[in-house]
Specification:
The complex is a heterodimer of chains A (393) and B (290). By secondary structure, chain A is an alpha/beta fold. Helix content of chain A is 43%, strand content 18%. The longest helix of chain B has 31 residues. The chains are: A alpha/beta (393), B mainly alpha (290). At the A-B interface, helix 2, strand 8, helix 7, helix 8 and helix 9 of A face helix 1, strand 2 and helix 10 of B.
Chain lengths: 393, 290
């Protein structure tokens, strides 16, 4: 009798173990959990973080209304890393402990770098999009995918446009003022590449500590060097702070900025300078035909003040979510991490409802939407106009 | 020479901001011996309140400035009454820890009320360029230089000639003797927090006008702290001067030596100065009679 009970218990134990081993974290018959790590409490990046979350929420709401992913409701879990890489790791660990199936956002550049080993080891399907980071996909990691051009490509495209179209009768001389971190290194990479490819005369690159607001000395050095093309490598309010100094010193300078240069508060702060400056992107601008579906959905699912807070970061997050959800849907009822990574790398086209061109990854290329367009921003009128078509740089 | 003069001008501009905030550190320390680590946050809160008056309630500038000067001390005094006075008699270290807590609360409160977005602070005098020979200044930068000079003069006159100023000095020198002379030290503490909030609040408005009204502007408090150490923790005028020195040294070292020195040159200077004068350039040496 004892032996029989022992056998039954053993069989039950083995059965339970097998079930647990087969079950995917974050997936039940009724729900599937996706995680986001964004810098919600860093004053510089918090507004961008909310814009990302809104984009994810719109995509999730749209899918849930249609019945979710193969009947499973999409649940989003957001964690804050305050733009500190050590916090990104903690946030990811928390999400893993709580049971997350896949990641839609994993913080900014340095945060992505810090979490890569864990994401790779646990084979968590991840879509890097908030801050494109080349080492995330080069070399290829089976579960990690990325959309969007690197800052290097975005800025290089802008410099190319400026050199070829905006330097009438002037010899270009380029300078860069960039943040002293991983983000800044990507900015400087664009500068180095432009110097090399166009054989540009240049000033020495200058770095600044995150949080610096006054750029008097930096702009004086650029002026003394005769710089007429400047990569203003700030994240947010540093860009207008640099422009104000350039305007004060009456510099005849064309400025290239990262995509944050298009955000409404930046454009507003740039207004007194009167500069026409440049930015780059790989998503359709808000208000364009490409963003129409997204904006309709946003109006449907978000609150009025949230809709007002949308930006191109909402569009990138929406696109990333759409791709991830479509790959999950393709797995049907047998939703596993391995399946989703396989579907993403299968070469199938993923539709982002016009936000980007249809997205395709392959087994040896886990990055897409790398073609960028250059936009011209008139700070006086606030008009943002695409001045090139999408192009691979 | 043009470059040198412009580096100096840039340094004086940012140094004036550091100096004003440094002064507000010193005003509180001089009266209460408390280092207020929430000074940057008080500066931010006053600037946000003033921004609301200007941009939401559309106060004209002639009304905005006096209203801010009236509201700022209420903020400072309220913080003193709510968080600092209950700690009366406790070790200074504990009070300083409370100010750190207040700083965190104020940062969160600001984001809770006004959100994360940064905004411009438009005033009638901003946006122009003023040229003095080879030196270029934005009109708002010229305004901060003038503000610094006016506030320094007023602070000097206040502590030198006014009854309240003298009472605050007396409290700082010997609280027991001051009490015996009928000076209410609690009231002096309250005044110090109020005046300090005005001075740092004006600096906050200028930071918002020059850069942006943003939830990370409290960093200027941290950056200004070396100014008050350099000038002397118990010397408001010395702290103001310390701000100018740090601003100018920062710009010159970034301009002529290496850009990375901008943030640390002031700290290097402090180490050197404190080795020679541990109480700062203008601080009073504490004499102990045995």
């Amino acid at each position: 009798m004892n032996i029989t009970i022992r056998k039954v218990l053993l069989a039950a134990g083995i059965s339970l173990f097998a079930t647990c081993a087969m079950a995917e974290e974050g997936v039940t018959d009724t729900e599937v959990v996706f995680g986001n790590i964004v810098p919600l409490t860093n004053p510089v990046t918090a507004s961008l973080a909310y814009q990302v979350i809104y984009g994810n929420q719109v995509a999730a709401a749209e899918w849930n209304e249609k019945g979710g992913i193969s009947g499973r409701k999409i649940v989003l879990k957001d964690e804050d890393d305050a733009y500190v890489p050590a916090n990104t790791v903690q946030a990811l660990q928390k999400l893993i402990d709580e049971g997350v199936f896949a990641m839609l956002t994993t913080g900014a550049g340095a945060g992505v770098a810090a979490t890569l080993p864990i994401l790779e080891e646990q084979a968590i399907p991840t879509m890097v999009n908030f801050s494109p980071y080349e080492p995330a996909i080069n070399p290829v990691k089976p579960s990690i995918f990325m959309i969007g051009a690197s800052y290097e490509d975005l800025l290089f495209g802008e410099i190319k446009y400026i050199v070829e179209n905006k330097m009438e009768g002037q010899t270009p001389k380029i300078g860069v003022i960039r943040q002293d971190d991983d983000f800044g290194k990507q900015v400087e990479a664009a500068f180095s590449r432009a110097v090399e490819e166009f054989n540009l005369d240049h000033a020495d690159p200058l770095t600044f500590k995150r949080g610096q607001k006054d750029f008097g000395a930096e702009m004086l050095k650029m002026r003394a060097a005769g710089v007429n093309i400047l990569i203003a490598g700030g994240v947010t309010s540093e860009i207008p702070a640099m422009a104000k100094e350039a305007a004060k010193f009456k510099m005849d300078v064309r400025m290239a900025t990262v995509p944050t240069g298009q955000l409404a508060p930046i454009v507003k702060l740039m207004q007194p300078t009167g500069f026409v400056y440049y930015s780059g992107d790989y998503v359709s601008p808000l208000g364009s035909e490409g963003a129409k579906h997204f904006e309709e959905m946003a109006n449907k699912y978000l609150k009025e003040d949230e809709v007002k807070g949308l930006s191109r970061y909402s569009l990138t997050a929406y696109a990333a979510s759409q791709i991830m959800f479509q790959a999950a849907e393709a797995c049907g009822k047998d939703l596993t991490r391995a399946c989703i990574s396989e579907k993403l790398a299968s070469g199938e086209k993923f539709d982002t409802n016009g936000v980007t061109e249809p997205i395709t990854f392959s087994a040896d290329r886990h990055v897409a939407a790398t073609e960028t367009l250059v936009v011209e921003i008139d700070s006086k009128t606030g008009a943002i106009t695409a001045v090139t078509d999408l192009e691979q740089y | 020479m043009d470059l040198f003069l412009n580096f100096v001008a840039s340094g004086l501009v940012i140094g004036s901001v550091y100096g004003l905030i440094g002064m507000s550190f010193a005003i509180i320390f001089r009266t209460t011996s408390v280092l207020n680590f929430a000074q940057g946050e008080v500066m931010m809160l006053v600037a946000y309140v003033s921004w609301t008056l200007a941009h939401t309630l559309h106060f004209p500038f002639w009304l905005l400035l006096p209203t801010t000067i009236l509201l700022a001390p209420l903020i400072g005094m309220a913080i003193e009454r709510l968080f600092i006075r209950p700690m009366s008699g406790q070790p200074i270290f504990a009070i300083v820890m409370v100010t750190i807590g207040v700083a965190i609360v104020l940062r969160s409160l600001t984001i809770l009320v006004w959100g994360h977005e940064f905004e411009g602070f438009n005033v009638p005098f901003s946006g122009g360029v003023f040229e003095i020979g080879p030196v270029f200044l934005l009109t708002e930068q010229l305004a901060v230089l003038i503000l610094f000079a006016v506030v320094s003069l007023l602070a000097w006159a206040f502590f030198r000639f006014s009854r309240v100023g003298m009472a605050m000095r007396a409290t700082s020198q010997d609280e027991t003797a001051a009490l015996l002379m009928g000076i209410d030290s609690r009231r002096m503490s309250s005044f110090a927090w109020g005046i300090s909030a005005i001075v740092s609040g004006l600096a906050g408005i200028m930071v918002s006008v020059m850069f942006a009204r943003a939830p990370d502007m409290w960093h200027f408090g941290l950056k200004s702290f070396p100014a008050t150490i350099l000038g002397g923790l118990d010397s408001p005028i010395g702290s103001g001067f310390g701000g100018l020195v740090i601003g100018v040294i920062g710009e010159l070292s970034a301009g002529y030596i290496w850009n990375g020195l901008k943030e640390i040159s002031g700290l290097i200077l402090i180490i050197v100065i404190l080795m020679v004068r541990p109480y700062g350039l203008f601080g009073e040496k504490e004499l102990e009679r045995v």
